[in-house]
Structure of Threonine aldolase:
Amino acid sequence: MSDTDEHVEEDRTVEEPQERDPQERELAAWRGARRRLSRAAKEPTVGELLASLTTPDPDEPADVYGDGVVARLEERVAELLGTEAAAYFPSGTMAQQVALRCWAGRTGNPVVALHPMSHPERWEGGALTTVAGLRTVHPTDESRQPTADEVRELPEPFGTLMVELPLRDPGFLLPSWEELCALVEAARERDAVVHFDGARLWETTVHFGRPLAEIAGLADSVYVSFYKSLGGLSGAVLAGSASLVAEARQWRLRYGGRVFRQFPQALSALAGLERELPKLPSYVEHAKVVAAALGDGFGASAVPWFRINPEVPQTHQFQVWLPYGAEALTEAAVRQAEETGTCLFRRWWPDGPPGMSMTELTITEEALSWTAPDVHKAVADYVAFLTEAGAQA
């Protein structure tokens, strides 16, 4: 065989196409969509996140172990929540463990009353027991906030009542203002302190009809997050009395949370307080418009059953449930984004009985331009992709 023949033979060699990673495909579809109903935390690139960091004084010395811009963030949050002091933590998991551990020491009771679907019980690997040495009891097992009577009737003493506002896993649920006040009063009657898991407390003002400081003022301590509603990079703050926060800082050191430099997180949190916090009420109100339109759209479609949970959103986040497999629902969402340029839903998760799946929607600025007819059209297109994929109810 000549050199020429060898060259021709090499040219005929075709590499087998590599199967694309499903998550990469999904992310490309979400990013490439011309219109999106909600945002996803994984969408921004490193460059976009870096470009979002701004400072009023670029010549300010960088923070060292929590001074400078980090201290300014703490002061700003304490002012917003009406507390004496606040301490920055690299994660909400750490902030809450520290808060509950401090209260256990102060009350002399290591028992924490909280909902079984709250974050420490479901998403922290049993840290309250394993790391902090605490024990939990549940006022209710139902998918709703506990009632004052259930707190009063707990059969054993507890040192702290932890209330997640909103309670995410059952559908971002909130009590009424009167119910919340009664819940706090019931804990006081049991000689317990009250801690708010306020990771998403920022958007509760519309539902409660009260400012942040009045809501936070019901509790003895409050934790708030910066990336869940405000679009920050990461991080959290624990707010409360000056003495509690001073003690929490010592526990933060013991937990490894006293980080050398945190100015990127602090700058993004301050930007979120400046840019996103004032807009949250408009997001909450528009979530009600979108949820109603989704209900109308699915009601007019061929799907045999659906649920918007809650039917009227109490924050700017809510759930959508459909009786199909999660893979089929996610595939239909990807195809809709790829082929129409419209991103209505993203990833779905199997939840509840077999064949039932759920997704969460977060309504932010991108969704404000969506009218009810826009949502109806997007739902009809989505159901068509779902039907084309042969999804089984």
